[in-house]
Amino acid sequence: MTDQKLMDYCLSKRYAALEYPFGPSTATFKAGGKVFTAIYEKDGVTKLTLKCEPMLADLLRKQYSAVKPADKSGHWNRVLCDGSVPDNEIFRQIDHSYDLILKSLTKKTRERLKRESHPLYLFPDPNYQPLEIREGDQYLANGIWIFNITRLLEHITTHHGEYPLKETLVADHTALPSKIPIDKCADADLRCPVILAEISPGRYNLIDGNKS
User: Phi and psi (nearest 5°) for 119?
Assistant: First the structure.
């Protein structure tokens, strides 16, 4: 079995994350911040460190010479991928380790993982840098959001193929006053699109693209 096949299998687990806390030579797979598999190579042989229920761990060590204790507690096994342990058995041991780790997580952690695994969950980008607001830029500050309207319209204009225009009723997305002052609309360019920003699932804010 190849190392890549092992890594792909570990990453196929829900909530699985790959980290290298012990250096680039050891691929460590975690769920909820806890290790369930570590894969590394020593003396030309791939080895896995896996959590295991003590009684089962003892049986596996007796059945396979390639399965050794990884610590004094008896809760972890080291498996040598030298071909003597069938691939399906290695996968079962990974499954067992993963299940033990998942069961050991607190209810709060499991709920967080479930929430963060939702396809609409947004993760912050630590490398994100907001655009600098230039002199003369029109922008709208709304809570934690700052919408640079001038930059948005510039981007839409230069990438118009990515943003098909769609006719919509403004009243469907904002509460309008009973009377709109005419002087506020005098300079409005109706050829200029307005922008709808989805600030939370199903909740939109209307951003005025005109300087009115």
Answer: -60, -20
Which two three-digit tokens encode residue 48?
A: 């896995």
Segments of 13-138 assigned E as strands: 16-19, 26-31, 34-42, 45-51, 67-69, 76-80
**DSSP line for 167-188:** ---GGGTS---SS--HHHHTT-
What residue ranges in 103-181 does DSSP mark as E strands? 139-142, 145-148
What pLDDT is stored for residue 104 in this prediction? 95
Q: Is 203 helix (H, G, I), strand (E, B) or coil?
A: strand
Q: Is 47 left (phi over 0), alpha (psi -120 to 50) or beta?
A: beta
Is residue 175 predicted with pLDDT exceeding 70?
no
Tokens for 188? Answer: 């409005």
| CA angle centred on 174, ends 168 and 178, rounded to 5° | 105
How far, in Å, CA of 3 to CA of 198, rounded? Answer: 42
Cβ contacts of 56 within 8 Å, gap of 6 or more: 96
Give residue 90's Cα distance to chain centre: 27
Q: Could you read off the pLDDT of 58-99 as tens digits, one per residue?
A: 999 999 999 999 988 889 999 999 999 999 999 999 999 999
The Cα 27–Cα 94 span in angstroms is 14
